[in-house]
Amino acid sequence: MDEVTVIGGGLAGCEAAWQARRLGVDVTIYEMKPLLFSPAHTSSLLAELVCSNSLKSDSLENSSGLLKEEMRLLGSLVIRAADEERVPAGKSLSVDRKRFSSFITETIEGAGVRIIREEVRGMPSGRPLIIATGPLTSDAFAGQIRGFVGAENLYFYDAISPVLYKDSIDFNVAFMASRYDRGSADYINCPLDRTLYERFVGELLLSKKTPLHSFERMFFEGCMPVETLAERGRDTLAFGPMKPVGIIDPKTGKRPYAVLQLRRENREDTLYNMVGFQTRLLKPEQKRVFSLIPGLENARFARYGSIHRNSFIDSPRLLLRTLQTNQDPSVFFAGQITGVEGYCESAATGIIAGINASRLYKGLPPAFPPPTTMVGALIDYITDPGRRDFQPMNSNFGLIKGVNSKSSRRRCVERALSDVTLWKNKILESSGGI
Question: Does the predicted TM-score (pTM) go above 0.85?
């Protein structure tokens, strides 16, 4: 066997390469950027964040926060970069995207990982091999994956939110606040009364959108386009991404009927993204319709929202809990292509694939974290051979058995952190340490 080969320089691929390198194994990453970009990528840096700059909650009261803490304990490069390059966003771990990607790129290069900038169009012969091409795998290599796994990929569409320039937002209307005044006032809030809200929703429903083909009509629930949510009922947005709960307009002293929140995008505090406003509206329509929101009448767009195809494999039929493939245990899959949904979830699978690829290289048996941990429970979900109608999944406490109350959730967190520490120590000891 040769060095560990990783295809894809996204979050999962970088995390896998980092973990294998920490365990003393030579690693090569193949990354097609900047020679070829997917419809959603624009930067030549590794670990580019596409949909949002938020890695979700960092609180241990939240399943996402537990996942992050487990990843910290496992030496995650992604979480280390996020901690270093975070921007104020309340309890959310949000980052300056460019600094985040630069940190990871420089760290990977500094660790001695070889990076080859070319599109992989055929299945490499080198083993162990980690396929972490993400949900936007190039057409050429997607064909190779289909041939290798012997099954068609499953498709769904993902959408990303627009980013606005802060200095174009009218703060005579908008205001800084956090829900229930908890923590610092990190979010820009644009309040709407019922009349303005209904006018906005009406125009949103009439807006022109990017057409979809028949096989492109399945969206992941967590990234539902705002216009698709509006089609479910006129008040859906007011109970979803525009819910006003915990927000008081300082100009009226009352809770608005609905509110758009914007979250800081960079450390310079010049860019803000529209929270929960993933969209497939045409660009002129985004300008027209979103300017109906009070405070955004003259807003300038640093990036318009868009949609792109996301693909994932039928992991319950194809992968072992070690993220090895059934048909060739020297080939691993990691990242969103496995059917996990979310930045941290994708990176977490990269951690496990990187550890196991390095163990395979050293002649050691692969390992998987216990299902009492969030990482282990998530992998259990995507690799359960009894699962039917497989769909992408975020981390959530429902994946861990016995968590049905706040008290059981607290016990779950304590047990998970203890178990992941014990597992890590066992793995490091048997792998030769770091």
Answer: no
